[in-house]
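As noted in the main text, all predictions were made from sequence alone. Below is one such record, for RHOMBOID-like protein.
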Amino acid sequence: MGNGDLESRGSIKSRGAQPPGPPPAYYTSSSPFHTESSEKQWTSWLVPMIVVANVAMFIVVMIVNDCPKNHNSSLEGDCVAKFLGRFSFQPLKENPLFGPSSSTLEKLGALERNKVVDDHQAWRLVSCIWLHAGVVHLLANMLSLVFIGIRLEQQFGFVRVGLLYMVAGIGGSILSALFITSNISVGASALFTLVIIILVNLAVGMLPHVDNFAHIGGFLSGFLLGFVLLIRPQFSWQERRNLPVDARGKSKFTVYQYVFWLVSMILLIVGFTVGLVMLFRGENGNDHCSWCHYLSCVPTSRWRCDNR
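Prediction:
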């Protein structure tokens, strides 16, 4: 940097007169101050593994289902895509999502309120997260994970994203069990651009076997968990070593971040506690909302809904 530049900044008058102490710091083009924040990028492996696990589980479900062997075609019609053999799907009148039967899903861990409450099979609140009602349902949820989940894991790491996935899924299961009392439900929530994916998941959730209460409950849980687990430090705190002293952030997080964290944590604790208490006391969520059952299934001439 030339003398003229130094003099124009009111700094050193000549190269021969250096003030005591370290030389003043000037930002060059290679300084992180002029580039994007050098955040640690994690390698995404958990989300791809979740996708693989869900696909593998769906394959297992279809192997167990074996429509040509276990389905009575004289009652509901022929299996769909019979050329797939035991991987062929139930008739569309029974399952319009190109998937297995309700009995197969129930056998492998689908969420059923009576089994959770009366038979003490609370594990179904978790197992149903890994089941999907059909190819359409599976694709909708896996696209969510691939397009959004991988990026989140790269930014925040596998621990926080893994907690987000599981806790949001359980939150969706609790809400589902409160409102769907006479039918099974499966599928992880629509956590993860986002508006289109949410709309697709909600639209799919209007069909039989796919549970929109799990989608809605999972989305709300995931939304609140985002303020708890995915909180990010201020830029001025992250780059404090590269900024002038008077520009450095004094706090890692802002006041409103702390407020959102606290409010979200309270809502999560209260919501999960109230939901579990209502569930195991045998209360029916539809008693408090007469129209809510239409959020999960809309009856048509092609299928009926019995989700109350």
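The chain has 13 helices and no strands. The first helix runs from residue 3 to 8. These features were considered when defining construct boundaries for the mutagenesis experiments described in Section 2.9.
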